[in-house]
Design goal:
Helix content of chain B: over 70%
Oligomer: heterodimer
Strand order of the largest sheet of chain A: 1-2
Largest interface: A-B, 38 and 39 residues
Largest sheet of chain A: 2 strands, antiparallel
CATH topology of chain B: ABC transporter involved in vitamin B12 uptake, BtuC
CATH class of chain A: Mainly Alpha
Largest sheet of chain B: 2 strands, antiparallel
CATH architecture of chain B: Orthogonal Bundle
Number of strands of chain A: 2
Order of helices and strands of chain A: HHHHHHHEHHHHEHHHHHH
Helix content of chain A: over 70%
Strand content of chain A: under 5%
Shape of chain B: globular
Radius of gyration of chain B: 20 Å
Number of helices of chain B: 12
Strand content of chain B: under 5%
Structural class of chain B: mainly alpha
Shape of chain A: globular
CATH architecture of chain A: Orthogonal Bundle
């Protein structure tokens, strides 16, 4: 009797034994292999471009999932840190006469330091009170950043955006520059994603899940919840700024509305919720699904528009695809709040529970 | 500590709001000439009134129902567009530009009335269709109203077009009085008047009528009010509709002031409303009034001196108040 394992222990042992042989692991390997092979195998540059952008979005959404899904804190300023990263690369390279790799490292340091300080200020000012003040303050500060970036033309060149050269290794002047950039992005994104996974499974990550479930209980157990909440927000923001750096490296053009505008924020929100809050894999799923939908929804609407009669209201309805996005967002929150991966997880867990109940 | 010094500290804490307002009022005199100062002050007070109308509804809705309605800005925009449509119709009838004083007042009133009706209808739809689904879950409420605000802005773009549309307000309200070197815009004085009127009426309703006492009690403690026997859902809906109506009035007045409507007008003002609600305290109309004055004045002064930093000074105010008195100046 004493040597028999409980169902939960049996399940954990089974999970550990099949860590490298179960279906999910092979799926991840295949996915990574596809990412590595895409620029080599597929001749069309559009596909490589799309995959690079999706990878950057995955990291951005995963870092947001850390803040919203694992810690339970809503933030409206995530895209601001993304923009800070993008602009630090853009401005440093724009103003230098001889772009080199060292400048890239300087840009990384500046971006991460700025994000660190800013996110620390945001959390310290507002998290003490209630999480909702953090959401409101982040909304206001993000809007302020947008206004600053558009109007502080001496620094950021205003609404026209910044076009800048890259160091020789990465620039498109030589034939393999884009490939090198792609693999740099791939390696960095993989590294950041694994970092996030490791963070979430660490003891600190488990404490965060406890805080999200029931903050009063966590406080009663002795954890200083404020400090535990600050850490993932700061880390998530710094990772978002690194994602912004990658975006600037890939696109070589940064403008205020794309990186500081609220359209990006609502994109992140939709992706994280469609994919599944509280599961890092959800960010992959959500980013891919929403990105594909955004690419094809306007075309689908145009097809519909050509079929229906040309009434102004109907043309309006078919032009404004953001309307359908918003409606989908609302419907998903009401009826499908766990997202794709969340629902899959729920189904798997229920089946497991059924199996254990029948077996016992 | 003696009881006298504690009392003095309490008095300081109660009145520091007015102290900050006075400081904000007097500080810019160092850098701005007196004539500009008067113009800016009146413009700032008027801006504060528009924000007050939006923020007061938001504040009471949050205090009573614990719902942060991110779609409040969209209701503001709907109010502005409703009055735009009414004024356009009346303009083709000749009431607006060349009408008599009575017609001017009537067109103004009809515009506001249209805004109130549209605001109440839209508010009702939002409350029933969207907020009812996610009662109790803060996070979902914020997300869903955030999404709803985008949907509503897109609907505005479909019905009225995505461009900036000019409004022509009745002649009697346009233009300004000139006192020496100072230009005082007539409509802004009227806006200040309307804002103060709303404050007085709301304070009277809250403090002297039975429904006001129920709402105030509900803000403090929902469960006890339910236990006493009042249907709290009906009160919620009523408060939500009043808040939506106020926001719509704010939108109409704002569009008259700016002489134009555009789809994003709601979202821009919503940021101010948030700042005011945080400064003034959730659930308090008087708090939003003082907060709105502070925000409006500070914004206008800094917009004159250093335009890009105008919103920053408001955020700074919000951060300072969050540090000193986290629940807002008059929050519960």
């Amino acid at each position: 009797m004493i040597n028999e394992l409980t169902p939960v222990q049996q399940d954990r042992l089974h999970e550990q034994k099949t860590k490298y042989t179960n279906k999910a692991f092979w799926l991840q390997l295949i996915f990574i292999a596809c990412l590595i092979l895409v620029p080599l195998v597929i001749p069309s540059f559009r596909v490589t471009d799309m995959v690079a952008k999706i990878m950057i979005m995955i990291v951005l959404v995963a870092s947001y999932d850390l803040i919203l899904g694992y810690t339970g804190i809503l933030s409206f300023a995530h895209h601001m840190f993304y923009g800070i990263g993008a602009y630090s690369v853009a401005l440093l390279f724009y103003h230098s006469s001889n772009p080199s790799a060292y400048l890239l490292i300087a840009a990384i340091i500046i971006a991460v330091a700025l994000s660190f300080v800013l996110s620390l200020l945001l959390t310290v000012f507002s998290l003490r009170v209630q999480a909702i003040f953090f959401a409101l303050l982040s909304l206001a500060v993000a809007e302020f950043m947008l206004i600053l970036s558009e109007q502080w033309t001496s620094l950021t060149k205003g609404e026209d955006g910044v076009n800048f050269p890259l160091p020789d290794l990465l620039s498109s002047a030589n034939a393999s520059g884009r490939m090198v950039t792609y693999y740099l992005i791939l390696v960095t994104c993989l590294f950041l994603f694994f970092l996030l996974m490791r963070f979430v499974q660490s003891p600190l990550g488990k404490v965060l899940r406890g805080i999200k479930d029931n903050e009063k209980r966590a406080t009663a157990m002795g954890y200083k919840t404020l400090r535990y909440k600050i850490v993932p927000i700061v880390i998530g923001s710094c990772i978002a700024s690194i994602a912004g750096i990658l975006y600037a490296l890939w696109l070589r053009f940064v403008d205020p509305v794309t990186v500081f505008g609220s359209a990006l924020m609502i994109n992140i929100l939709i992706m994280v919720i469609v994919g599944g809050l509280g599961t890092l894999w959800g960010s992959i799923c959500g980013a891919v699904l929403v990105y594909l939908a955004q690419t094809w929804l306007p075309d689908l609407l145009k097809v519909m528009a050509s079929v229906l009669p040309p009434h102004p209201i109907i043309t309006g309805l078919t032009e404004r695809w953001l309307l359908y996005f918003g409606i989908m967002f609302v419907l998903i929150i009401i009826y499908f709040p766990r997202g794709v991966i969340g629902t899959i997880q729920k189904v798997i867990n229920e089946k497991k529970a059924e199996r254990l109940r029948k077996g016992a | 500590m003696s009881s006298q010094s504690i009392l003095r500290q309490e008095n300081i804490k109660k009145n520091y709001g007015w102290f900050i307002v006075i400081v904000i009022c007097l500080l810019p005199l160092l850098k701005i000439s007196f004539d500009n100062y008067i113009t800016l002050t009146i413009a700032g007070l008027a801006l504060g009134m528009f924000v007050f109308l939006t923020a007061s509804g938001l504040s009471v809705i949050f205090g009573l129902m614990d719902v942060l309605n991110m779609a409040h800005g969209a209701i503001f925009a709907f109010g502005g567009y409703a009055s735009y449509t009414v004024l356009k119709r009346l303009g083709t009838l000749g009431w607006v530009e060349t009408g008599t004083l009575g017609q001017s007042w009537a067109s103004f009133g009809l515009g506001i009335l249209a805004a109130i009706i549209v605001g109440v209808v839209v508010g009702f739809i939002i409350e029933r269709v969207i907020i009812r689904q996610v009662y109790g879950d803060h996070l979902k409420q914020i997300l869903i109203t955030f999404g709803a605000s985008y949907v509503m802005v897109e609907i505005i773009k479909i019905i009225w077009g995505p461009n900036v549309e000019p409004i022509s307000i009745p002649d009697a309200f346009g233009g300004s009085w000139v006192l020496g070197n100072i230009i005082i815009s007539k409509f802004r004085i009227m806006a200040i008047f309307v804002g103060v009127l709303v404050l007085i009426v709301s304070q009277l309703v809250l403090k002297k009528t039975k429904i006001g006492i129920i709402v105030r009690a509900g803000v403090e403690n929902k469960e006890v009010v339910q236990a006493i026997g009042y249907n709290i859902n009906k009160i919620f809906t009523a408060v939500f509709l009043v808040g939506a109506a106020l926001a719509a009035i704010g939108g109409a007045m704002f569009s008259y002031n700016k002489l134009s409507v555009y789809p994003m007008m709601g979202e821009e003002q919503f940021i101010f409303a948030i700042i005011v609600v945080c400064i003034g305290g959730m659930g308090s109309i008087a708090g939003s009034f003082i907060g709105a004055i502070m925000v409006g004045l500070a914004y206008n002064y800094v917009a004159f001196l250093l335009p890009p930093l105008a919103l920053g000074i408001d955020i700074l105010l919000m951060a300072i108040i969050l540090l000193i008195k986290p629940k807002g100046m008059m929050g519960q």
